[in-house]
Each structure stands twice: as C-alpha cells, then as structure tokens.
Amino acid sequence: MNPQAERPALTVEDLMQHYNPVKPKIESRLMDFRRIWETATDEELFRELAFCLLTPQSKAKTCWRAVQRLCEKNMMNCSGPAQISQELLGVRFHKRKGEYICLARDRFGSISLRATLSGFADPAEAREWLVANIKGMGYKEASHFLRNIGLGENLAILDRHILKNLVLLGVINEVPASLTKRIYLDIEEKMADFSREAKIPMGHLDLLLWYKEAGEVFK
User: Domain residues for 132?
Assistant: First the structure.
C-alpha cells in the first residue's frame, strides 16, 4: 500500500502553521473565558447560556448581537417568548429559541446558575445536567457554554467546522449524519487523543480549528 495515499488532507505540520501565529490570541481568549467564571454575576452567566442556545445552525456573531440587543432593551429577564423571538434577527428557528431562553430563565428563577454549576464534580458532570435539564441544549451547546464561562476547556464543541477539520486531519472518517450521545463522546475521545499527540491543548485546538475556518478567534 502506498503510504502517501494514507496521508491526511490536513497534517499536524499544516496545523502548526496556523497555530503558532494565533496561539497568543487563543491564550488571551481562554483567559477571558476563565475570567468570566471568576467575576461574572448570574445574569452575565445566563447571557452566555442564552447565546449558546441560539447558535445551532446560526452564525455566532449574529447570535451574540441578538443577546446584546436583548440585554440593552432589558428584555432578557422578563420578556415573553414572542417578544424575545422578535429580537432574534438572523437567528434560525427564532421562535423555538425564544421559547428555549424563557424556559431556561424559568429554570433558574429560584436557584442560582453559578451555585448549580459549582455543585458538580467536574465539567462533564455539569454538561450531563445541562443536557438533561435545559431544553434546546445538546452536548455541543452545553460544551460551548461551559467553555465560554471558563469551565470546559477540555470538552469538545463538535460543530460543523470542527467535524469537517477532524475529517481532514484523519481523526474521524466522516462527518456523522447525526450526533447521538455515544457518537459525540466517541469523537470527543478521539479529538482528545489527537490533541495529546499533536501537543495542542483541547481548548486551543477548538479555537484553532474555528479560526482556520472563520479567520478570527471569537467565542
């Protein structure tokens, strides 16, 4: 068999060419995320949760602008699903996601989001609780939320950009048609193995692959 035929479309060496120049930006962004957990109020943590509820099949910047708009208009804490949905300009499935935000808000109406998350032994346990208790949160969204508040750097955020690049790197054979819990955790484990082999921390690897596709380090 020709070894060249097995060479992945994207090698670790290729990846390093992207990684080395952007590494300081990635480290800075991860420090921003850690700072959120250290300093954020429950309200600020909830903004990040709402953002992650909006992101499936929508652009991250569009979703963050929608969250900012809701906060500027003081709508996040008290408006109903229909009112919130009207502010989700450019967000796909905005009516459903408006409902998700309100349901999540109701869930934390009498309990602290920070206290809830602090009660888990590790981020993986927190993720399981979020998936089970917050409507609209799958493993990707819960991982994204925990990473964005400085608690989940070692969790995989398996969006289409990451999955496509994991195929190019030869980590997985193909982008799965759907992500069941078993498939998600299997790919996460393979990504973690690759992270260790490439000597690129998981949190860095996610933002690096996102940067490779989008050209910026966002959230």
Answer: 41-148
Report, as residue numbers or ranges, the catalytic residues.
140, 159
On the CB side of 54, CA atoms within 13 Å amount to 29
Residues 68, 120, single domain; the answer is yes
If asked whether residues 137 and 46 sit together in one domain, one would say yes
Count each helix (H run) and each strand (E run) in the chain, helices first.
Answer: 11, 0
CA–CA dist 189, 66 (Å, integer): 33
Strands (E), the chain: none
**Residue 152 near residue 127, CB atoms below 8 Å:** yes
Residues 138 and 77 in one domain: yes
CATH of the domain at 18: 1.10.1670.10
* Average pLDDT value over all residues in the chain: 93
**Is the overall model pTM greater than 0.90, yes or no?**
yes
Q: Which of 4-8, 83-87, 89-93, 115-119 has the lowest mean pLDDT?
A: 4-8
